[in-house]
Amino acid sequence: MRIDIISVLPELIRSPFEASILKRAQQKGIVEVHLHNLKDFGMGKHRQVDDYSFGGNAGMVLRPEPLFACIESLQAERTYDAIIYTTPDGRRFDQKSANSLSLLENILIICGHYKGIDQRVRDHFVTHEISIGDYVLSGGELAAAVISDAIIRLIPGVLNDETSALTDSFQDNLLAPPVYTRPAEFRGLEVPEVLTSGHFQKIEDWNHAQALQRTKERRPDLLED
Question: Of 19, 44, 117, 172, which residue is the least packed, with the fewest Cβ within 10 Å?
């Protein structure tokens, strides 16, 4: 998989891809992540990428010319299966969305900034408008990092344990059950006996029951879906 990310401030997003799982995925050659500075396509000697909004609305808007130039330069090199725009008014990102996007080969993410991007860019290029929650960030860079992380960890070979991602919260519309590690007893607090029994069917049944109970208590809306 290849992920290209267009940003006004790519330095805001660089560090997540230089550590941990995302770094190893790139080192293994499983995924490529490329950051593109929109200001490289800016206008005039000051590399202008934004301007005032028509209609007297407050805030600046990313102009269409730099975005069209940047996107078209990338499209000249490859075809994108998805062009994502990170925006608060987009569709809420969830595990099902991550699963679907993880099957694609080439993804382009446009990071929103200021009051957003010119609507003509959205109309002409964007295939997926995604929000990571009902709140507003200073820019779409952190949202792009969240989306990329959620997608990349699902790609076969990224995680050391291939089954780990399959047991994450939300995969079956359930939250994950409680987890324990060694020691089996700590300060009088013991791990549930079933988890140390070695009886895999009983362990699986316990995990499912705990996941169901936790979901009922904390996120009953998931069960309605």
Answer: 44
